[in-house]
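Field reference: sequence -> structure
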Amino acid sequence: MKRYANFNNSVLLIALLVLHACTKNNFITSADALLRANIDTLSFDTVFTSTGSVTKSFKIFNLNDQKLRLSSVTLGGGTNSFFKINVDGSPGVRFNDIEIAANDSIYVFATVSINPNSSTLPFVVQDSIMISWNGNQQKVMLQAYGQNAIFLRGRRTTTDTAWNSTLPIVILDGFTVSSNNTLTIGPGTKVYARANAPLVVNGSLRINGGIAPQDRVQFQGDRLDEPYRFFPASWPGIVFTGSSTNNSIQYANINNAYQAVIVVGNGNLSTPQLTINETTIDNAFDIGLQCLAANVQARNNLISNCGSNVVMQGGVFNMAHSTIVSYGNAYVQHKNPVLQIGNIVNGSIPVSATGTFTNCIFYGQGGLPENEIVINRQGNNPFNISFNNCLYKVKNTDPANATFNNSIRNVEPGFDTVNTGLRIYNYRLRATSPAVNRGSNAGVTIDLDGNNRPVGVPDIGCYERQ
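Structure field:
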């Protein structure tokens, strides 16, 4: 009898399993069938006209214990839509009889490509995807911001050229300022560059931004969608070649480059090849500012969170009231000192080096360097490096081959707010900062914000506490 009871129980169990399997393999046809999309709006960040976006996606979930057949998934604008969709691996504008297994899901992918129009301001394009099943409907909205732009693909100047803020400039495949030509960039101009598109200056570059945030000249990569908009090495950077002369940058923000600003000396150390003032360079993967046997004059600059912030290899380099700082973060690891000085070019040739750093901060945290200033002199060429009224971080003794006067060593600068997790970097000085009222009069009358300087005794760094 016991064996007979066990046999009956086994048969019952098998029957229940078969019944359950049959139930899961059947389609639910009730209007009460549950379906959910994991978003109600699929949004795209600014998309330049004539260029495509990244691909984004959402999921459609069958919340039932039986299979669900979608009668249709339809792109509202059809073939005339700015958007293109792909449902579970198939492109199109309408998809019929889409099956979703019990308690399973499918992907819907979308991209957007926007045609140019006459607008100079960003504009919104919209569409929707309608999901229909068992007499029910659910809509997922599609939304993108379009921006007309001036697209320059592999261009080279043939005469003096000017860019202004009417429309963004998008550089594709690089842009070259030819010898004897000048490119002038006016206040508020926004320049976006593709990953293979450096700005190469054989002639002269004049960047004339304005004090107000909206008037600063902006440089960054052309991927404006998250997370790409924050990635370093999004574009190559600006290169001043050995034939360039009389370059100036003021009130610019140069972000997310591979090598943000490279200056290759033109052989004339008596005249500045580049003057860079009131400018920020941030999040460059390899180098923020590199000077190769060049004459560079720098004032009120913030160069932050770069693979190597400032690299001087010979030449003449005078820097005043600048903050050179790096905090290890999710995008750029702090592996190298924020200031590296040497006198070797072309791999092995020693040259002369003259550098004066006045009222500057050289500091880093959250990385490998114990000394944020490293100096490497080779050969017997003239080598004169001095630091005056600077705040800097080194582990033990000051670097050799340089003089330090009235400076502050191994003290935290007292920045307003630094939170690497939230990407908050405010390098203005707190009232208790040791850099407040510790500078010398360097003849500088404004700070990076355009505020008056000094307020009392000058502060060290690019910001003057008001």
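Note: Residues 1-5, 15-19 have pLDDT under 50 and may be disordered.
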